[in-house]
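Q: Hi! First time asking for a complex rather than a single chain. Here are the components, and I think there are two in total. Is that enough to go on?
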Amino acid sequence: MNLANLSPLAVLLPILGAALAFLLIRHHTAQRVVSIGILSATLLLECLLLMSVWDGGTTSVTLGGWLPPWGVVLVVDQFSSLMLVVSTVVSLAVLIYATGQGMADGDQEAPVSIFHPTYLILVAGVSNAFLTGDLFNLYVGFEILLTASYVLMTLGGTGPRIRAGVTYVVVSVVSSVLFLIAIAMIYGATGTITMADLAIKLAELDQGTQNLLHVMLLVAFGIKAAVFPLSFWLPDSYPTAPAPVTAVFAGLLTKVGVYAMVRTETLLFPGDTLNVPLMVVALLTMVVGILGALAQSDIKRLLSFTLVSHIGYMVFGLAMSSVAGLGAAVFYVAHHITVQTSLFLVTGLIERRGGSSSIDRLGGLAKLSPLLALLFFVPAMNLAGIPPFSGFLGKLGLLQAGVELGTPLAITLVVGGVVTSLLTLLAIARVWNRAFWRKPEDAEYPDPVLQTPGNVGVLPRTMVGSTAGLVVFGVALTVFAGPLFRVADGSAGIMLDRSAYIHSVLGDSVEVPPLAQPDEAQTGGAK
Amino acid sequence: MSINLTLLIVMGVLYACGIYLILERSLTRVLLGLMLLANATNILILTTGGYAGLAPLFTKETNPDSYNDPLPQALILTSIVISFAVTAFMLGIIYRTWVLARQDEIQDDLEDRRVAETPSFDAEDDAIVPLETSEFAVTPASTSDHEHPEATETPNTSTTQEGGSA
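A: Yes, that's all I need. Here is the structure of the assembled complex.
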């Protein structure tokens, strides 16, 4: 039996778990056991899926007995299964963290009973978006995860969360409407919404129509991925949510947008028609995002800005449409999901230990809690791209690909990438100097918690443990960067070639249309 | 593909009203705008199916060309359900805003405003470091005020001032 046939379970298990957790709404312990157990089972399944396609190979599962050009298909390839595994590892760590927080705090700020089912639905939506091979099903996956995220964002219904939630909901709904309009127009133009079928039929349209559909999809996904001119909603809405929720949003939701952009660029609209605008947008995202981060005094907001900024690296890798560039982007996505989530989790811990997440109020945490300092330091250096961490390797891959491409714009982006990396280090160093290094008395408005002697033990072990686990996973991405890069490059090769994907969905007899400029598309279309 | 002009005009009007409404500051109007946008999109999907035809129920006598395209309708059904859920959620949020703040308006992000109003001058990073940092040197401003009221230092100051003016 082919293991890929189990892939629908990656979506179904969390949904069933959510139903079960909802039934157990009054039994908190049972609910925790169920949701953590279900998520672990999902992770195990996804590891099996990843192993089955580790060496390359694409398999598809047809749902409901409707054959591909009509029915919904799920496609398992290296990229989608790698994303599944990384996202579920992160979600599991965050779930354990949230459970620890819930057990320590009770229900006031974040009603745990509703948290677990909603969280599992979110995971199901993310998995669905990663697996699906159907454009409308991708929309449904987005809506599942977004609707769950609306609930999580406004958890507890406090004033600031409602305010942030309104912005978030309205922006998300508008982006979904744009996506739906694009789907309707694509269906009107081609008569199909199966992505593999679209890969063939979109190429038959005239260039103007293609560009229109292409840009509409990219704008819709760009809002979700928080790419520069469309990114202003993110730092406004993420920081107010509960710490674990912000962590999982920062790690996963924008990356689903990036994933959808990658699929659009490689499968639906291959070639280099929009590479130049994408590169410009990537540069602006990197630079503007990190400049925003430098102005912030709240760690959560600062990290939200670095999140926006680093999306630029992924778009850069994508815009090069070469195996090296796309492979590095895939690796960077995996790295960034892990690191950004760990940093937000650590910020949650800082807030508990230091009473605030503002660097004007914090100080002396390195002495008060050396473990916390270590947990912050490792992912922070990883994010800034200090050797030997995976952030450095990912950026190095991107920069190498950029230099290889050699166009003036690509070189500008390489320079921009280095500058952004240094500015990230500056932003992170500010947090480190103020929150960890200086004496508590030196803070502008020191939080009273910091100056009370003997105030230890406020950090629950589950929360520290899950954060530490995720930090270790981030380090493991560095240690096993070799095999991981091989898979990333392999997946990039498969995605740029397209024939494996199309053949696995529509059968081997289908003729895959050649790319417009096959040689140039492989080398990044330098012209 | 032929297009039903009435549907097209209705769709355009709905989009226009929807976009106008979501730019308002009142939450209820924003919600109405979102609903109009969702329905306009549903009409757009419907028009992609072409002219109305027979219901797609299989009978042997029917010519396959006279069937309606069922797929857009399935898509619309899904999108109606989704917009229904989002509308319900937005209503919940609007009610909550009313309970909390007694107003139906989008609030400003206070932290954002604070950061925007922060001067670019940062005391720790940007303060002008005096050229002479020795503890014993006396600057005119500090002596004339209240830092060192001792009489011994006063002549010192006057000489530096004279030196400066000369």
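A: Confidence is low (pLDDT under 50) at residues 142-166 of chain B. Let me know if you'd like any chain examined more closely.
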